[in-house]
Amino acid sequence: MRNRQATQLIFELSQPGTGEEYIPAVNFTEDDIRSFLPAEELATELPPLPEVSEPVLIRHFINLSQQNMSVDTHCYPLGSCTMKYNPKRNDRLAQLPGFQNIHPYQPVETIQGLLKVLYSLQEMLAEIAGMDAVTLQPAAGAHGELTALLIAAAYFRHRGEHRNTVLIPDVAHGTNPASAAMAGFRTVEVKSNAHGLVDLDDLQSKLNHQTAVFMITNPNTLGLFETQIRRIAEMVHGVGGLVYMDGANMNAMMGIVRPGDCGADMMHFNPHKTFSGPHGGGGPGAGPVAVKKDLADFLPVPVIVEKAPGQFALDEDRPLSIGKVQSFYGNIGVLLRTYAYIRTQGAEGLHRVSQRAVLNANYLLSQLRNIIPVPHGSRCLHEFVASALKIKTSRGVSAMDIAKRLLDYGFHAPTVYFPLIVKEALMIEPTETESKATLDALVEALRLIMQEPPELVREAPHTTAISRPDEVQAARKPILKWTPSADGSNG
Ligand SMILES: *Cc1c(COP(=O)(O)O)cnc(C)c1O
Questions:
Q1: Of all helices (H) and strands (E), which one includes residue 243?
Q2: Please, what are the domains in the chain?
Q3: Where does 135-280 have alpha helices with state H?
Q4: Residues lining ligand 1, judged by CB closer than 6 Å?
Q5: Omega before 302 cis (within 30°)?
Q6: Across the strands, what pairs with 266?
Q7: Ligand 1 binding pocket mutation candidate from 175, 244, 273 (most atoms within 8 A of CB)
Q8: Checking DSSP bridges between strand 211-217 and strand 242-247, what pairing results, if any?
Q9: 3-state class of 247 per DSSP?
Q10: Which has the closest alpha carbon to 245: 304, 339, 225?
Q11: What was the pLDDT predicted at 491?
Q12: 291 sits in which H/E element
């Protein structure tokens, strides 16, 4: 990555009067500008807009856009997050005027096309899940988890059962226990065995009549398929509990295994992972939830239904529904891209995506394990977790240092220090969209990093706009607003 720094804000570049220096301006009067602004009572004063010439403006934003890595500029082997390349045609299709220029308060008769697309997306997701009904409303995977757990709570309440516990494996994504706690459940951790899979004895010892839900991610966050999933589901159902499948890793098994066929009662999808929705900068995403038919009555309203052939409606009349979890019908832009992705891949294409994601990960695993140890499994599904523990002990280079140094070689860093059961974890997921040449280059970069002087690696990255920010400070006390300092200088 070249070091093109945009160190000043556009306000700081402002020079009154330069706006039309090279390119003649369209002459706006103050009244014209006011007419673009919200009603008078909302905007009494014109905002202090910066004045810059067009070249200054364009260079400023292009330089800013180049300070970061993105999946459009670099390979992004970010485990757990499935950062695959986002086909641009999905963007174009989602931006068709019939989708882009509609308003959520339009009468349903005028948005039949959109409802038809959303309805068929529900049907396609139900098919991929092996389940009966789908809601598209949740705004992210974690929100899908929360929605499903609220559905489970409503289901047990309706049956007059008092179940307050959610069991979660120790390798689970942090959102699982957080969602369970938010939905009012107590969480109990289930241990992994030496192979990195759910320990069935430990699970058995924790199952009882208090168990509401067992949340399982399959393939799990070590990239391993929970081969005992059917047995696990029988055990959970045996005490009257429900099985929730965290579907964030569906990229490994689309068209190959259906969670519903393995005994899961509900699951969420992460369209911004599996179905290539762009998800830089924290969103927007979506988290559709699929459920088996016994749970369908509890889905959030409104439910999109087909009243008569080709005639779609929003059904609000669902007495057992948990209510609304999101405004309107969900994050439509992401859902439209999901629809476009699934339709353009087709059933065969989705199957191939998963096969190739698994092949890429296994190729990388086979090449990398001689460079950085991989403690669990000689084979993986879509991702694997390497451990820099030995390297840290022998050379004083940590997982974080390796991840940072990869930026200098033009690779986005893998996920680090997750899952927690692997020390000095580097969690790597190449996805299906990377070529063998790119994977070989990643292996070569890691091989070279291992031979570099430890001090060089510990101080990386050396070529990025910002080297090592204080991440805790940035997360806890972000400065999101620029304020000019009182003396008129740029603060
Ligand atoms: C990403 C992820 C989630 C959370 O999904 P978001 O869309 O980020 O809220 C949950 N579980 C697993 C395994 C994930 O990888």
A1: strand 242-247
A2: 4-67 (no CATH), 88-345 (3.40.640.10), 356-476 (3.90.1150.10)
A3: 141-158, 175-182, 200-206, 229-238, 271-274
A4: 80-81, 140-142, 173, 175, 217, 221, 246, 248-249, 270, 285, 287
A5: yes
A6: 244, 291
A7: 175
A8: parallel
A9: strand
A10: 225
A11: 39
A12: strand 289-291
Give the C-alpha distances (Å, rounded to integers) separating 83 from 22, 134, 153, 433, 475: 41, 24, 32, 9, 21
- Please choose, from the candidates 90, 141, 120, the residue with its C-alpha nearest in 3D space to the C-alpha of residue 273: 141
Mean pLDDT in runs of 10 for the chain (491 residues)?
62 80 70 73 73 89 88 93 93 94 94 97 98 97 98 98 97 96 98 96 98 97 95 98 98 97 98 90 86 98 95 96 93 96 97 98 97 93 97 97 98 95 97 97 98 98 91 90 63 39
- Report the predicted TM-score, pTM, of the whole model to 2 decimal places: 0.91
The one-letter code for the residue type at 323 is: G
Report strand pairing: 133-135 vs 289-291: antiparallel
DSSP codes of every residue in 359-393? HHHHHHHHHHTTTS---S-SS-SS-EEEE-HHHHH
